[in-house]
Amino acid sequence: MTDYDAIVVGSGAGGGVAAAVLAEAGKSVLLLERGRSLSFEAVGRDHLRNQRMPVYGHNAGPDIEGNPRTLDPASFPIPVGRELGNLRLLRPHEPGYQNNAACVGSGTRVYAGQAWRFMPKDFRMASEYGVPEGSSLADWPISYDDLAPYYEKVEWEIGICGDHRSMTHLPAYEKPYPMPALPLPHKSGVHKAGLDALGWHAMRVPRLINSVPYNERPACIHCQQCVGFACPVEAKNGSHNTTVPRALKSGFCTLRTEVMARRLACSEGGRVTGVSFVDADSQELTCSADVVVLSCGAVETARLLLNSATSREPTGIGNAGDQVGRHLQGHYYSGAVGLFPDVMWDGVGPGCSIATSQFNHGNDGIIGGGFLGDEDIVTPVTLWKRHYPPDAPRWGLEAKRYMRQNFRRISDVIGPTQEIPSPDARVSINPAVKDRYGLPVAHLSGSAHQETVRAAAFMHERAKEWLWASGAVKVWGQAPPRYLSGGQHQAGTCRMGEDPASSVVDPFCRVHSQDNLFIADGSPHVTNGGFNPVETIMALAWRTAEHIVRDW
Amino acid sequence: MLDISQLRCLEALLDTIIPPDDYAGAVEAGVGDYLLRQLDGGDLAELLPTYQRWLSNLEAEARADVGKSFAELNEAERVSLLKRVEKGEVATDWSLEPAPFFRQVVEHCAEGYYSDPDNGGNRNGIGWQMIGYGARG
Ligand SMILES: Cc1cc2nc3c(=O)[nH]c(=O)nc-3n(C[C@H](O)[C@H](O)[C@H](O)COP(=O)(O)OP(=O)(O)OC[C@H]3O[C@@H](n4cnc5c(N)ncnc54)[C@H](O)[C@@H]3O)c2cc1C
Ligand code: SF4
């Protein structure tokens, strides 16, 4: 007899779905989350300490103290964190750490909820483009068609608003979105006219937001603090108010917060039998289960596997092919900022409503590309720190007047550029540095592939072109330099494939070397599309969890 | 923390970075409160000695330049002095590079003026009212 049918580690995007699908199928589930359950008040509205603008801290975890990582200084263009021998020692809110979040819901507690399907070509990048030197670009072992029914489930069951008719870059939808797109703010209308003038494709941005009341929660009230913050009316659909409550309501799921999984528990023969964890009172416990699902996010899932070495798998579970932790990727962000002659602002949040997929593929001499969209309302201090023109005055009456005259006239377009994976962009463990639980921390090394940098520079030029077409009188910004990416869109560290020598999980996200160990988060993504990843993470987790139930 | 003359110098500095016009200047908007809270055991506590040193250098520069303390200079004098500081063109022997820390002070000042009032500055949301953040339509 085991303690539970299944243990799911991590309550974010993937873990929430896995727990809900398993529990609703009548499996007893223990859901472990290292962070806390955060109320709206606990997340707060601190403009200097949030997941979007973490100047001095952040608001969705992990705790600043006791959760360090180390970084190879060559992975980042500027010195970050503190010096530690020949490495950098980072706290979670510092650049280079690759944080998403740690709380019930993880990033979904405070995200923007942009909800994108990847395109069919995103699943077969190597076949489309060939493999550039130094890259580990590969096809997914599954296709868009395998995932399409699960995209639809996420759209209807978790709740996505949008206009399927505008998604002409995708195969036709079987069903429309369950809710209409959010209303277009004034500035999105201006940017739409820019796209029309250029003859570029335009689409409404699908979002995990209630545009009308849905799932017994109200519609968005269009506040001005969406991305990086919690929703005052719970109109934003994240794991904390959809999948995790569903799992709990089934009566089959136990959620334990402030519990850190230390390692996978294994039999003498090296078979996974459960999970060992530490709770908030520093008590060490082990629970057994028939199935274990890891949903810790791409960095921490890799770390947990590497920290779980056994005599059968001495370099870490699933790591016989030396693949665990490699191919770390997120998205390069390319964009530009514009100053407009007329006021763009109407204060209608969230803000990001119009986008183009004109450049996701088919760009001469470029591998992949990405979409570009307008942006959510930025807070004044974010505009000051990130979007202020480099040549505008920074102090004195002139600077004050510049902000006064132009805060409502500045508007940017930006988007995620698909990364071309590199095997050297990597999570390993650093046994010399321990976290508050005494566990070796994640060590980050390597950099994005040069093709990623090239694609991002190309997208930056397209962003500028769009702003001019929208009527900007001044345009600024820079293409991103080379660095190690990951962060909020982290993925790729336990890639999916048929061959155990070059992948960590099989096409149903089962770790090759184990019968009962699955991964449901961004780690199995072979590539990460030119779109924000969360709908794909949720859809893939759904498919994996259904497979587990079907095969039980 | 800061002694009274350092405090007066700091306030004059903040009000030169964001001066009063028909909207409150930095000090009236609470930027001093924001900064003192950050320096007094807050996120900028490690910078307190640098603030003290930099301010005393600024003070010495003002005395050498105009023969008055920085807080006693009129606005035009403060602006022209800070323009030199910003370029690193100082007349006295500073114990630290003048320009890079000035850029940091400007940044801290903007944080106080434009971030949420719960951080201690932006009193009654004055910074937001001025630029129109929070407004609809
Ligand atoms: C401000 C912000 C805006 C975003 N906006 C968007 C957007 O608009 N669209 C989009 O697609 N994506 C967005 N994202 C990213 C999105 O949140 C992530 O892609 C998604 O949450 C990743 O899902 P995951 O399942 O891989 O991991 P996560 O959701 O990060 O879940 C991992 C969870 O596991 C827990 N955990 C880790 N290790 C352990 C352990 N050892 N023991 C116990 N628990 C553990 C963590 O605390 C965490 O809660 C945003 C993120 C942020 C922060
Ligand atoms: S913009 Fe809408 S969905 Fe976003 S936090 Fe505000 S009310 Fe909620």
Provide a quick synopsis of the model.
The complex is a heterodimer of chains A (552) and B (137). Chain A is α/β, with parallel strands linked by helices and 552 residues long. In chain A, 22% of the residues lie in helices and 17% in strands.
Average predicted confidence as pLDDT of chain A: 98
Please provide the ordered H/E string of secondary-structure elements of chain B. Answer: HHHHHH
- Shape, per Cα inertia axes of chain B: globular
Cα radius of gyration of chain A in angstroms: 22 Å
Tell me, rounded to a whole number, the average pLDDT of chain B. Answer: 97
Overview of this structure, please?
The complex is a heterodimer of chains A (552) and B (137). Chain A has helices at 13-24, 40-43, 125-129, 144-159, 186-198, 243-249, 298-306, 380-387, 397-406, 450-469, 534-550; strands spanning 4-9, 29-32, 69-71, 82-84, 87-90, 203-204, 253-256, 260-266, 272-278, 284-294, 332-339, 354-356, 372-374, 410-417, 426-434, 440-445, 474-476, 517-519. By secondary structure, chain A is α/β, with parallel strands linked by helices. With 137 residues, chain B is mainly alpha-helical. Chain B is built from six helices and no strands. The model of chain B has no long low-confidence stretch (mean pLDDT 97). Chains A and B meet through helix 8 and helix 9 of A and helix 5 and helix 6 of B. The site of iron/sulfur cluster has 13 residues of chain A, from loops.
Keywords:
heterodimer; A: 552 residues; alpha/beta; six-stranded antiparallel β-sheet; globular; B: 137 residues; mainly alpha; 6 helices; binds flavin-adenine dinucleotide
Topology:
The complex is a heterodimer of chains A (552) and B (137).
Chain A: E1 4-9, H1 13-24, E2 29-32, H2 40-43, E3 69-71, E4 82-84, E5 87-90, H3 125-129, H4 144-159, H5 186-198, E6 203-204, H6 243-249, E7 253-256, E8 260-266, E9 272-278, E10 284-294, H7 298-306, E11 332-339, E12 354-356, E13 372-374, H8 380-387, H9 397-406, E14 410-417, E15 426-434, E16 440-445, H10 450-469, E17 474-476, E18 517-519, H11 534-550
Parallel strand pairs in A: 1-2, 1-10, 2-7, 3-16, 10-18
Antiparallel strand pairs in A: 3-5, 4-5, 6-12, 8-9, 9-10, 11-14, 11-17, 12-13, 13-14, 15-16
Helix pairs in contact in A: 1-6, 1-11, 4-11, 5-10
Chain B: H1 4-17, H2 31-39, H3 48-66, H4 75-87, H5 98-114, H6 126-131
The structure holds flavin-adenine dinucleotide and iron/sulfur cluster (SF4).
